[in-house]
C-alpha cells in the first residue's frame, strides 16, 4: 500500500516543512511535490515528484528546463494542468535570473560578463553568439544576438557583428557565446573567429576587449587565457 503525504507526521510533510524551515531545507522532490499539490489514489505526490526527477536523472535538475509540457503530462499523476504549473514555475525562475543580471550596468571583467549573460544562455541547446556592446565607460548598451548554430567564420561574419555595434554607437564590445555541452573550453574555431573579429575591430576602431565562452556554471575568458590575438 502506497504511503501518502497525509500519512506522514506533520513535520515531514513538504508544505509544512517549507513553512517551518524555509524552501532551502527541502529536497528537490519535496519542492516539486508542493508545486504538484496532490497525488492520485494509488500514488503519493512525493512519488510522482520522484518519477519526474528519475525521468531527467541523466541531465540532473537542469533537465526540467528542457522537458516539455507534453512529456511531463505523460507521467502518470501529472497531466496537462500540473505540467503547465511546473513549466510556469521554471519560466518565472528564468525571468528572475535575467532580471537580476540586468542590474549589472558596468563591465569590469569577465566575471561581470558571465553574470550578465549566463541567465540568458546557460540552458540553451544550441550555440548562440552575441556581442556585449559598451560605451566609453564600459557601461552596457545592449547585448544583441548575432547568430544561432555552430560557431564558424561563415556564420559569424564581421559585417553582422559590427553592424550591431555601429547601430548602437558602441565604443567597444565583448564577444560571447555558449557551449551547450556545458564545457566552456574554447575550440579552434572559437579562437579563429575571435582572431578575425579582433582584426576587424582594429580596422573599425571598435575594439574587441574579450571573448567569453559560457558553460553551464563555468566560463572561460579568451583574454585571460592569452588567446585574444589579432
From TrEMBL:
CDD domains: MPN_DUF2466. The keyword Oxidoreductase does not apply. Gene3D superfamilies: Cytidine Deaminase, domain 2. Residues 106-228 form the MPN domain. Keywords: Hydrolase, Metal-binding, Metalloprotease, Protease, Zinc. InterPro entries: MPN, RadC_JAB, UPF0758, UPF0758_CS, UPF0758_N. GO terms for biological process: proteolysis. One of its GO terms (molecular function) is metallopeptidase activity. Belongs to the UPF0758 family. This is DNA repair protein RadC. The lineage of its organism: Bacteria, Bacillati, Bacillota, Negativicutes, Selenomonadales.
Amino acid at each position: 500500500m502506497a504511503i501518502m503525504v497525509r500519512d506522514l507526521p506533520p513535520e515531514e510533510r513538504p508544505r509544512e516543512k517549507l513553512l517551518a524551515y524555509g524552501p532551502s531545507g527541502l529536497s528537490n522532490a519535496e519542492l516539486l511535490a508542493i508545486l504538484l499539490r496532490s497525488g492520485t489514489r494509488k500514488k503519493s505526490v512525493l512519488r510522482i515528484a520522484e518519477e519526474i526527477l528519475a525521468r531527467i536523472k541523466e541531465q540532473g535538475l537542469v533537465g526540467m528546463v528542457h522537458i516539455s509540457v507534453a512529456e511531463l503530462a505523460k507521467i502518470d499523476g501529472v497531466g496537462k494542468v500540473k505540467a503547465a504549473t511546473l513549466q510556469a514555475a521554471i519560466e518565472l525562475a528564468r525571468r528572475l535570473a535575467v532580471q537580476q543580471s540586468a542590474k549589472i550596468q558596468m563591465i569590469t571583467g569577465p566575471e561581470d560578463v558571465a553574470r550578465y549573460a549566463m541567465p540568458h544562455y546557460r540552458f540553451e541547446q544550441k550555440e548562440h553568439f552575441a556581442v556585449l556592446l559598451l560605451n566609453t565607460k564600459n557601461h552596457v548598451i545592449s547585448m544583441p544576438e548575432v547568430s544561432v548554430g555552430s560557431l564558424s567564420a561563415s556564420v559569424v561574419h564581421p559585417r553582422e557583428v559590427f553592424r550591431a555595434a555601429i547601430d548602437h554607437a558602441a565604443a567597444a564590445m565583448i564577444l560571447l557565446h555558449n557551449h551547450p555541452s556545458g564545457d566552456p573550453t574554447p575550440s579552434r574555431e572559437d579562437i579563429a573567429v575571435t582572431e578575425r573579429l579582433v582584426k576587424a575591430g582594429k580596422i573599425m576602431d571598435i575594439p574587441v576587449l574579450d571573448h567569453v565562452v559560457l558553460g553551464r556554471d563555468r566560463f572561460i575568458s579568451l583574454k585571460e587565457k592569452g588567446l585574444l590575438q589579432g
